[in-house]
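Regression report. Comparing outputs from two consecutive submissions.

Submission 1:
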Amino acid sequence: MTMVEARLTVGQVAGQFDVEPGYLSAATCGVAPRPAVAALRADLERWRRGDVDAGAYDPVVSRTRAAYARLVGVDPGRVAIGSQTSALVANIAVSLADGSEVLVAEGDFTSIVYPFLAGERLRVRCVPLAELAGAISDATDLVVFSLVQSATGQVADADAITLAAAAHGAATLADTTQAAGVLPVQAGRFDATVCHAYKWLCAPRGVAFLTVSEQFAGRLRPVAAGWYAGDDPWASIYGSRMVLATDARRFDVSPAWQAFVGAEQSITLFADADTPSLWRHATGLGDTLCAGLGIPEQGQAIVTWADPDGSQLARLTAAGIRASGRGGRVRAAFHVWNTEADVRSVLAALR
């Protein structure tokens, strides 16, 4: 798709899914679009026949990397691949000097927090997300936060955080796992981002990405380097002579082949989409639900409300609605396949 071609509409993207009504759990796990299912089935059939060529997966990985780069607005050379966000974050954590201050948001997802706590050699300071920008000081080395909070769906004030970080010489790491695929993301505004693609990007689990600026990459140690991080991976599978890629690929972890077969289709679909319209669609449904529940509009794709005893989630589940519960709250996630009928179903189940 060129710059002059029209982006895919909400309806066109939704038309690639066969999701049962009432699935409001993209924040937990996305669902596969038809092209991903077809590609996976064809690949499994080749595997069944013993018609597998390991090298043939390289173009799949390359195209997936490029599609993700296009989605988040960076050059593919700034994208590294992996299988889990915590492993990619570990490259950053281990590269910080002992005693460095890492500022994190209270209640954030532990995959972007634990790597900095492990080893107890860094000073990790936690503050509420709303106070994150104001808490950055000249002593802060790295600010770590999810662009969209997993538990609550709250969207971080990225403008305030990045401006404050720049003013104090601190680097930024944003987790876009709950954002990419529904919220427009410009990864280049942060020093680094991580994303696991099995949620809003609807890829198989086992496909994750790290984006890193050229300047920040120079500060990182590729501690997970293996053969796929080599400048020429197939010339890097044996021996002690290490020649790593010169771009972000030096942080690559070798790919889960079958997972990338499905991910290529899913991520390309969302890279081709008009993401602002996806966000308007999802948040519009979320606000409609808020109005029906009699709670303030949240302007989020993930809507949460108090459910301390889990009874409301149980009523939704009994009605065949797939939502989730986090921290004593119901969590309903609206994605491209959801409609106002899903909102009506939730309200009916809770009456």
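Submission 2:
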Amino acid sequence: MRLPRSRGLRAVWGFLAVLGPGVITGAAGDDAGGVATYASVGAQYGYTLLWIMGPITVALIIVQLQVARMAVVTGKGFAELIREEFGVRWTAVAMVVLIVANGTVTIAEFAGIAAAGELFGIPRPISVPLMAVVVWLIVVRASYTVAEKIFILLSTALLTYVGAAILAQPDWKEVGVALVTPSFQFDPGYLATFVALVGTTITPYMLFYLQSSLTDKGVDVTDYPRERTDVIVGSLLTTIIAVFIVVSTAATLHVNGVVIDTAEDAARALEPLAGPYAFLLFGLGLFGASMLAASVLPLSTAYAVCGAFGWERGVSRSWSEAPIFNTLYTALIAIGAAFVLIPGLPLIQVIVATQFLNGVLLPVVLIFVLKLVNDHELMGDYTNNRLFNVLSYATTGVLVLLTVALLAFSAFGIG
């Protein structure tokens, strides 16, 4: 039976009301570096790596659900729990690495903003400072509710990659087969790409941001079922968009033997092969993704550092109420934007260095998650059940091995 219009609208608005930190966190994962990685995977390997997006989706959901559960049960940020349970020394090490890693990734996001602007004829000295001010205003001058709505709006820009993939006219039957058919090549380059694909989808800053934003929003344990839906939808959005990015470049660049290094390269290469609209959609997606991540990365860092050391934090807090939170957020944006304006800055090397730093932090973060979420004194009846623990330990083990492999490849110059 067809629902009455009013009931149907209520159902839609009810679903949209659920969306929030989980969707924002997931969408921020498809940032400039992620777009470049997915685009290069499609250009270099076609559809052959699409099958890994299924297991990555499961892993992302498992990891983020644990973090969300800790947030609603304890009412505390991830870094705050690390300090309380493991001490200041471990916390200080984690925060130093997080600041450096997130700072360099923020540079990459402003590089994405600059690249998107240049695709549409806007010079870097205009687009970068202007968007840096916009990003700053979103958090420093807006309430949490307003900031969340803006972040969700920016997330919708990722849907442009769906249009770009459709305009690329792929063989959808071939895409479907690749999604469910595991394949592997035993060469260093392929394995390094495989590891990078996982690493760019599940990152430490996503976990810090998700838990802190939930506590800032005031979500409690009674709201967990709704937040669980939010996290699952956000994780699905992350990987579905990644699939469409891979498809758009596989169907055009791979079949024509075009090699790319950046998301900007992918957008420019799409135009003669898939038409100007594909170029336009890809460029808009790059801009939206970079703007979202340029907001979320500094925000997650400020949340984590202030939570770790007990300083006041929160989007809705004024400068006088949370001076360190607002100063750190402002400084990361200013540094990220300023670096991009340096002539001849080797951005590719900056991104490679970021992979090292995130690779060092990710295994530690995942182990912290498992230790905390299974602490009965901390979580009470909301610790992992046996099935979830099996999945969680397996996911963590695989991710740790892949991260170690990526670090080893990078250290020895393989791939």
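Expected: both submissions complete independently.
Actual: both completed, but the second showed a warning that disappeared on reload.
Relevant detail on submission 2: Residues 276-308 form the longest helix (33 residues).
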